[in-house]
Amino acid sequence: MGKVAYYIFVIPLSYLPLGVLYVFTDFFYLLLISIIPYRKTVIEQNIQRSFPDKSPAEHRRIKRQFYRHLTQLLAESVKGLSISKEELTKRISVANPEVMQDLYAKKKNVLLVSGHYNNWEWVILMQALFFQHSALGIGMPMTSKFWDKKVNQRRSRFGMQVIHSKNYKNELKAREDECKSVLVLADQSPGDSLKSYWTTFLNQDTAVLFGTEIMAHQLDYAVVFYALRKVKRGKYTMELTLITETPSTMKWGEITEKHTQLLENEIKAAPAYWLWSHKRWKREVPKNLDELKQQQREQFNQKFGN
Description:
The structure is a single chain. The protein is α/β, with parallel strands linked by helices. The chain has a domain at 91-304: Glycerol-3-phosphate (1)-acyltransferase. It has helices at 2-14, 18-32, 40-50, 56-80, 85-91, 98-105, 120-130, 145-155, 168-174, 211-219, 254-269, 289-304; strands at 92-94, 110-114, 134-139, 161-164, 180-185, 197-201, 204-208, 222-232, 235-244. The strands form two sheets. A seven-stranded mixed beta sheet has the order 1-9-8-2-5-3-4, sandwiched between helices. β3, α8 (145-155) and β4 form a beta-alpha-beta unit. The chain starts with a helix and ends with a helix.
């Protein structure tokens, strides 16, 4: 069934103009706000807990705006399967590319970090087109092997290579002679609350993946946060923020705190564009959180000498 849907339905749709796809997804938006309220409870709880000072009316407005964004994102993701280089580069611009240009001139590998905010799928596509670094992205495989293969083939057609999170060291080592930028979406819910970095994010105790910080220290990669902002429907601009060029000078938690705070700032500025349907806060806060943090800090300092 997956193959039939891909070849008969999804791929032919992707060749339609984006404006036509928006017509279809505008209809889907009406279904979401009336008949099929996708993950309504999860979305409402996430928004209410993240913005306790906002009124119920403001919460409802964010939810409606998110549903609108989600349906537009669906259209853009489908279009991304066949979008041309020319159209993609017209729809995304980079405000300050000199951040990456400077790092490339220094032959510095980069962790390009952000979250599931605005159109991350187009970022995957455009990374190799906009930056001189060899483009790689770390991700988890999809449940369907067929869809995982086909989607990653489409994602990689402009130069991106998607690598498995459990095998990234071997993949990076195989390309050690290249100057690389590695895309990391760091706002997933971690699998183990005891191995996570705990911080306050959107007014809640939140477990954050610590992998970006560990990779930066292990591999001596610079860390750059990207903010993708919507200019209008189907058009975005990216702004880069250098977190550190020398991770060895950063203390335990500093890199994670910084990229998490930068993402939070983007969400607060325009709440509708984050993935509120994601079960972000499903991990329980450890009862011995202070002790856990102290243990993590000591282990980190022993390993990296900070």
